[in-house]
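Sequence, please.
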C-alpha cells in the first residue's frame, strides 16, 4: 500500500469514527434532554451490572458506569448543550468531509483544534487518561485532515 493510500485510508477511518461518535453524542444529548441524567444512569447500570457480575475486571463496563455517574454530578444543561453541540458539529463535519467538500477543510481544522484546546484546559482542571486519549486522537485527525486538504488541492490543480 502506497504512503498516500495509507494516509487516505486512515483519514477515512478517523473521519468515520468522528461521525459515528458525533451521532452517538447527539443521541445521548437528546436522551438526557428528554429522560434526564438519572434515567441514563439507571439504564447504564441495568446494562453493565450483569456483565460486571460475570467479569468484575471489565474496564469497559466500569468506564461506562463511571461516565454515567459523572453525568449525574454535572449540570444537565451543560451536559445536554455540550453533547448536542459537540455531537452535531462532529457529525456535520464528518458528513461534509466524507462527501469531499473542500470548503469544510479549514473549518474542520479550526473546530477540532478548538476541541483539543478545550480538552487540554479540562486536563489542567481534572487529569484524565481518557481525555488525553481523545485529545491525541483529535490531533491525529487534524493532521490527517490537513494532509487530505493538501493532497486534494494538488489533485484539483
Amino acid at each position: 500500500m502506497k504512503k498516500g493510500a495509507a494516509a487516505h485510508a486512515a483519514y477515512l477511518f478517523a473521519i468515520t469514527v468522528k461521525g459515528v461518535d458525533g451521532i452517538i453524542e447527539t443521541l445521548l444529548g437528546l436522551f438526557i434532554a428528554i429522560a434526564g441524567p438519572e434515567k441514563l444512569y439507571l439504564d447504564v447500570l441495568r446494562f453493565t451490572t450483569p456483565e460486571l457480575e460475570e467479569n468484575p475486571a471489565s474496564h469497559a463496563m466500569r468506564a461506562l458506569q463511571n461516565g454515567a455517574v459523572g453525568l449525574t454530578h454535572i449540570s444537565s444543561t451543560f451536559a445536554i448543550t455540550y453533547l448536542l453541540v459537540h455531537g452535531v458539529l462532529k457529525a456535520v463535519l464528518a458528513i461534509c468531509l466524507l462527501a469531499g467538500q473542500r470548503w469544510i477543510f479549514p473549518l474542520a481544522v479550526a473546530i477540532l483544534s478548538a476541541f483539543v484546546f478545550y480538552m487540554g484546559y479540562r486536563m489542567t482542571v481534572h487529569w484524565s487518561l481518557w481525555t488525553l486519549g481523545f485529545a491525541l486522537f483529535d490531533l491525529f485527525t487534524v493532521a490527517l485532515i490537513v494532509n487530505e486538504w493538501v493532497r486534494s488541492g494538488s489533485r484539483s490543480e
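The radius of gyration is 18 Å.
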